[in-house]
Each structure stands twice: as C-alpha cells, then as structure tokens.
From TrEMBL:
Its cofactor is Co(2+); Zn(2+); NAD(+). Residues 183-329 form the 3-dehydroquinate synthase C-terminal domain. This is 3-dehydroquinate synthase. Residues 69-181 form the 3-dehydroquinate synthase N-terminal domain. Zn(2+) binds at E186, H251, H268.
Length: 364
C-alpha cells in the first residue's frame, strides 16, 4: 500500500513516500524533483552488495550520472574521517551545487551522508533511502545529520533536510532480526510520546521481535504512523527550539549507555529501550506517571525483544557524568523527556541527580 506523507519545513518542504517495491523506481521518483544530473550514492558494503546495483540501475535509467562510495558499517565508524571519504568521492566525481547525495542504508549511513551533503559546497541535495526500520521511522526524516565525537554521540552535526525520503518496506525482508528490534524501539517511542493508538496496536500484537510476525497491514500501519508522528513534530519545530526535543525520549540515558560501551555492546535501539525504561521509572519516582503505565511500557519493550536493564558492569557515576555532555543540557541542567500518560510527555530539567542514581541503581 503506497502512501505519501508531507514534511512541512518551508522553504523546502518534502515528501516521505512509503511504497513497496519502490527501490526499482528511485530514478522516477527523483526525476520529479528537477535535480542536477550528478548523483553520489553512499552505502555500506553489505547493503551495496544487496541493493546498490539495483539503485544505480534505476537512477541511470532516467539519465542520472551515478558514482558511489561505500563506508564501513557500524556506529564506531560514524566519524569525521568517514565524512572525508565522502567528500573525497564528491571531489573526485566533481559534484556541483545542483548535485545530489543519495543515502542507501541505515541510520549511520543516513546521518553521515546528510552531514557530508550539508557541508559539501556549503550544502547540496540529499535524498534518503533508508534500509533499516530504525532509519525508516526516525533517522532518515527530519534533517538531523552528524557524526560522533569521542566524548559523546552526535555532538558534531548540522540540520540539513532531505529533498525526498523513499521507503521501500520490501527491503526489511533481509534486515537482521536484531536490527528490526532496534527499529521497534523507536516505534514504541512514538506510541509513548505522541500516538496512543499506535501504542495500543503494538500491545495487541502477539509478537514484535521478528519480521515474520508483522503482516503487511501491520507493517504499513507502523511505518505510516511513525513517519506521520515524526513529520508532525518536525513540521512544528524544525530545529528543536522546543517541541522537537520530545523525539529524544529514551535517548538521554540511551546515548550515555552507547557512548560508555564504545558503541559495541548495545546498538542504538537497544540503548533507547533502556533509556525509555529509565525515563519511565524516573517519571514514576517524580509522581508524573503511574507504575501500571510504566509496566505497560516495559512489557511492550520486552515483547519487542529489547533489553530493559543496563549492561553489566556499567558505572552509574560515569553515566551521570556523561549526561552533562548531552546536547540537551541547558545552563548546566540535563533536560529529560518524561511521560505523563501514554501518548504524552513533558520536557523538564528538574530531575534531581539522586533520583537518576536511585533509578539506575535499583530499577535497572
């Protein structure tokens, strides 16, 4: 089932197209945007082997001049060194201001390609073609691009909206189960912060931990609801002046966990799942949320096969220290996104350190 969702961010609003089998039509979709003829496709080796030639063929079919660049897979390669490789390819292939970078891959490839596009010739076009559930529902939408600093995640970056996002659900058939579960963390996030109907639908589904348990109708519902939630929030607050911060639900502690474990122990979705459980427990301790609601969230996270406890041996003091380097710190205070009911959250910097410590020590 094809659907198109509009992200309203003047002066250059754009569409998210969700269309099964659309990877083979990427050239046709892009030709409607009246872009320059030069395209640099960026991917990782595994995704390129599987889908690269199909994408390049579809682009060449409508007259694009296509070159490509592959980068190693994994969060630990999300660095300025990788950005230089993309820039080198852009220079070698003489990309111009009318040219386009196409990100074919998961969230890491999307973030890096977006940042490279934002910084090449002071900003060229980027088209996102996400191949993971996490990228489809979150990372590819909204224009946040960047790389990691050794001291923290996504500290180096820019807002650079894509010209177009193309989602082909068929590519999820080859997505490893762990990556599917990682994406489901972001889907659950949307249910908690924005869409109680989505949360209830996930609750009524018997299993969420493998692709085979998601029929086409359910997958379409998950993708369209999640993308619409992201589009709604970004359209109201493009550069995180206020409302958009709610999209970081679960990410505050989640990013600290990722960083402190060197991006090797848990993936992004798993870290967000842990962070959501922590945020839920903090909200209970502050009497903003009820224990039964926190348990509903935890049960849904467990149903998706995601962790609800900190990795063994992680130092609580180190987590609290790392929170101070988070992008959401303002005037020295860590801002938390905390749930008040299923479908609604609030942003607060009034979370005492002893409450964070208690939750991390006793509840996770």
């Amino acid at each position: 089932m094809k659907s198109v969702i509009r992200v309203e961010v003047p002066p250059q609003s754009y569409d998210i197209a969700i269309a099964p089998g659309s990877l083979d039509d990427i050239g046709v979709w892009m030709s409607r945007l009246k872009l320059g003829k030069k395209v640099l496709l960026v991917s990782n080796p595994a995704i390129f082997r599987r889908y690269g030639e199909r994408a390049i063929g579809a682009l060449k079919l409508v007259g694009y001049q296509v070159s490509h660049c592959t980068l190693p897979a994994g969060e630990r390669y999300k660095t300025l060194k990788s950005i230089q490789k993309i820039h080198d390819a852009a220079l070698q292939n003489r990309l111009e201001r009318s040219s386009t970078m196409v990100a074919l891959g998961g969230g890491v490839i999307g973030d890096m390609t977006g940042f490279a596009a934002a910084t090449w010739l002071r900003g060229i076009n980027v088209v996102q073609v996400p191949t993971s559930l996490l990228a489809m529902v979150d990372a590819a939408i909204g224009g946040k691009t960047g790389v990691n600093h050794p001291q923290g995640k996504n500290l180096i970056g820019a807002f650079h909206q894509p010209r177009f996002v193309l989602i082909d659900p068929h590519v999820l058939q080859t997505l490893p189960p762990r990556e599917l579960r990682a994406g489901m963390a972001e889907v659950i996030k949307y249910g908690v912060i924005w869409d109680a109907e989505l949360f209830a639908k996930l609750e009524s589904t018997k299993r969420l931990d493998q692709r085979r348990y998601l029929d086409e109708e359910l997958l379409s519902f998950i993708l369209s609801c999640s993308c619409q939630a992201k589009a709604d929030v970004v359209s109201q607050d493009e550069k995180e002046a206020g409302l958009r911060a709610i999209l970081n639900y679960g990410h505050t502690i989640g990013h600290a966990v990722e960083s402190l474990t060197g991006y090797k122990v848990v993936n992004h979705g798993e870290a967000v799942a842990i962070g959501m459980v922590a945020a839920g427990q903090i909200a209970v301790e502050l009497q903003m949320w009820t224990s039964p609601e926190a348990e509903r969230q935890k049960a849904l996270i467990e149903k998706a096969g995601l962790p609800t406890q900190l990795p063994p041996g992680l130092d609580i003091d180190a987590i609290i220290d790392t929170l101070q380097t988070d992008k959401k710190v303002k005037d020295g205070k860590v801002r938390f996104i905390l749930p008040t009911q299923i479908g609604e959250v609030t942003i607060t910097d009034q979370v005492p350190a002893d409450v964070i410590r208690q939750v991390l020590s006793d509840k996770l």
